[in-house]
Amino acid sequence: MQIFRIDGTFDRHEELLALILGAFSYMDGQIDPPSSAHALNVESLRQKIADEIAFGVSDGERLVGCIFCKPEADCLYIGKLAVAPQTQGKGIGRRLLAEAEMTARTLGLPALRLLTRIELVDNHRAFAAWGFIQSGTMCHPGFTRPTAFEMRKTL
What we know:
- The chain is of the alpha+beta class.
- It contains four helices and seven strands; from the N terminus they run E-H-H-E-E-E-H-E-H-E-E.
- It has helices at 13-24, 42-51, 92-106, 121-129; strands spanning 2-6, 53-58, 63-71, 76-83, 111-117, 133-138, 148-154.
- It has a seven-stranded mixed β-sheet with strand order 1-2-3-4-5-7-6, sandwiched between helices.
- A hairpin with a 4-residue loop joins strand 2 and strand 3 (63-71).
- It is globular and about 40 Å long.
- The model has no long low-confidence stretch (mean pLDDT 95).
């Protein structure tokens, strides 16, 4: 497995989109509102790559993981952490988060931050095992109840 930077030279946008949609598909019917992954298309993904710091993982032939990172004032925000379903449980997510940690340290940021939906209890456990703690809740527009937990990891 090889980790690489996804940048302006990246040319596998359709494969990356399919990876994200495939990795997030298990959430369909479980979370409300639906995942923002459904709003992605090749053009918006190109813009996301230009606006954020992204990394991919390849098994030599195909993309099997990705992570998008966005610097904020006091942390590095983690979004669209995706691992292909057939390769989950092999440490790819952990390796991508380690890359995010190195990026945060390089940028002088003391923490990682992410959002995980309230309904995705297995994700809460996985992120807690990786050192994240719940630091708040958020409510998507149009909802009167919390729809996601914010989790942070101090570096």
